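Renewal narrative, Specific Aim 1. Our central claim is that a sequence can be written position by position from structural information alone. The example that follows is taken directly from our test logs and has not been curated for this report. It begins with the structure tokens describing the chain, in the order in which they were read.
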């Protein structure tokens, strides 16, 4: 039986994990300090638990208890049951999906274990928007990419917004952060990957040509603003572009990823 704990005080210290979810800087500090992350919505909470992450607690509106009954039955974590007005007061937004869970983070794996056996890998440099990171994970998972590697300054894939947009793909796709930014791409080349950078560089070729004949592919994407750094652009094995209508030179990085993954999956 789940451990149901009805609460009616928004200041209750047991709700600390769920407080002020709209304050990104505060949440990043709190989640890093306490080694936790938040999952939102029945499907995402279920996928997080089924992926093996350990719940610290759940925050549920009464009408959502039945939908997650089997998940709650298997957990020893407390289930804080609150009305939806109190949930909004604590979190800072309307929890229209009705369910939140606080879960324990795991230590990040090393690069070797993440890419072991991988044929298609996404490599992100300084993608700082959580929505974009989540969308990239979702596209990569949907189109058969095996892993994601992130430069140190990329947004957190386990931030609530990233997880929500990814619909839990961050739980099924192996990922980690690159310990060495400067030589990250040459290091992947030395492991047998062909690094293909999406860029507007003068020598960039259409993405179809860049990935043709490639066995182990590392598809490299840059930040939302200026794209790839000169170091990553120049150290990639190949440079590629998505051909577009004249007058439009680029797509949002998440949209570009989806197009490039689609092409790469059919190489």
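The sequence written for that structure reads:
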């Amino acid at each position: 039986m789940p451990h149901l704990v009805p609460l009616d005080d928004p200041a209750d210290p047991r709700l600390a994990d769920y407080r002020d979810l709209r304050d990104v800087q505060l949440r990043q500090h709190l989640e890093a300090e306490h080694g936790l992350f938040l999952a939102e919505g029945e499907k995402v909470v279920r996928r997080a638990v089924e992926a093996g992450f350990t719940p610290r607690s759940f925050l549920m509106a009464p009408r959502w208890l039945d939908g997650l009954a089997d998940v709650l039955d298997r957990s020893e974590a407390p289930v804080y049951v609150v009305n939806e007005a109190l949930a909004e007061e604590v979190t800072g937004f309307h929890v229209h999906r009705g369910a939140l869970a606080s879960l324990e983070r795991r230590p990040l794996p090393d690069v070797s274990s993440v890419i072991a056996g991988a044929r298609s890998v996404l490599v992100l440099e300084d993608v700082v928007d959580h929505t974009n990171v989540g969308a990239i994970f979702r596209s990569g998972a949907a189109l058969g990419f095996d892993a994601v590697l992130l430069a140190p300054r990329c947004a957190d894939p386990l931030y609530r917004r990233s997880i929500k947009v990814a619909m839990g793909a961050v739980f099924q796709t192996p990922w980690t952060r690159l310990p060495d930014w400067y030589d990250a791409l040459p290091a992947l080349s030395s492991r047998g990957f062909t690094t293909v950078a999406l860029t507007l560089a003068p020598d960039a070729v259409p993405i179809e040509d860049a990935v043709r004949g490639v066995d182990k592919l590392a598809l490299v994407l840059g930040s939302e603003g200026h794209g790839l750094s000169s170091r990553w652009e120049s150290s990639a094995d190949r440079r590629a572009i998505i051909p577009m209508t004249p007058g439009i030179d680029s797509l949002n990085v998440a949209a570009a990823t989806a197009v490039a993954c689609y092409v790469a999956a059919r190489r």
